[in-house]
Amino acid sequence: MIRFGRTALAALVLLCGLLLIGGYANKARCAGPEFDQWGRSAPEYANRHGDLCYSDIQHLWLGREVDRHVFPYLGGGLGEDGQLIGGSVEYPVLSGLLIWAGAIFANNDADFLLYSSLLLAPFGLLVAWLLGGLARWRALIWALAPGLVLHAFHNWDLPAVACAVGAVYAVHRGWGREGASRPLVERAMVAGVLLGLGAALKLYPGFFALPLALYVLTGGAHGRWLPGGKRWDIAGAVRVLLSTVVTVVLVNLPFAVLGYEGWRASFVFQQERKVDITTNSIWFWAFRPESDPANADFQALVGWLSPTLIGLAFLLACLVGWLRWSGTGEYPWVGVSGAMLCGFLLLHKVHSPQYTLWLLPFFVLLAVRWGWVLAYTVADLALGVGVFLWYHAIEFGLPMSIYDSLPAQAVMIGVWGKVALLLALFLILPSTPVTFAPESGERRMVTLSSR
Known about the structure:
The chain is mostly helical. It has helices at about 5-30, 55-60, 95-105, 110-135, 140-145, 145-150, 160-175, 185-200, 210-215, 235-260, 260-270, 280-285, 295-330, 335-345, 355-365, 370-395, 405-430, and strands spanning about 35, 40, 75-80, 85.
């Protein structure tokens, strides 16, 4: 095996940095060269979907009072038309703070994109460093991912990814001189705090507190950390769950108290969001034409059916992990977390292209066969490129049907390719071994061809 030391880790982070620079350069093509009176890039901003440089960051400079530097949530709410007003944004509170911070010194959408990218980039580098410390060279799956160029600065996802990966690192590497020799509950509670912070950024990391609690409940790897004479560490598992829940509450409480309507509006907006052509989910594509946004009955059905099925998928993933624990003596909390994420991406009514960033670390941390990684990369590229070319075709009356439009065909490949892959990954991830030794600095040796 090629040695992986500090120099290699630095090189890994450097490679990631180069891709992040490329990702910013790609998005910055949509900025300027002129700006209108509101700081919106001109001329012909509406044409930029076809240039494959569109980003939500640049787009949301207008429409959420970001350009007016309004502090988020405190005076906001939902307007009569269902749109967010007064500084409320459609993301959890820590993402809202990042959006506000990125706009402080901005005078136009190009400045906002630049300052936001500068805020986000360190989190992408941190993910590379953490993954390298866990899985060594396999972290190149993150550092050299085409998805970084496409999605790193599309939205505000990198901090949430860093929290999720940081939680895995805290559990299995610890920190300081004691490292992973610290008590498991102590490491897992710190991980729970990180997952709570992640939930206050993009929600999904909070899901992983449940399998982490089950890992602690069963004493970690082969029950090594169980209290003397006990079969279960119930108190430890509860403390882990509380560390996540309390973190989420403490972060949200000031906003809920000082600006309840503005804080609540972000959740209501997402709850009431309709399944439409922009959601890229099975709910839109599998139920055409019933899934038309004007079909109130269908939209109401999806509103409760989607979260119900997601909850059932979470329980199923945890149950499969439990069966795995009964055979191996180690609850596969990382694999179960990956399966839960796949279930969420598959069944949620919105599947934005940048959600690929959420899944990529699991391709590093779990010994997923390279064919699966390549297939998902191809599907992601098909959707990430095709969907914006397709939006451009729709906006400007170009051929847009699946019979005469390559972008439409690429979207179908991306949507249904991801559906098939997410379903398969949901089934295999709980039984896929991790690529690192659970509680040491030694990398676990796995045979990829066996998966």
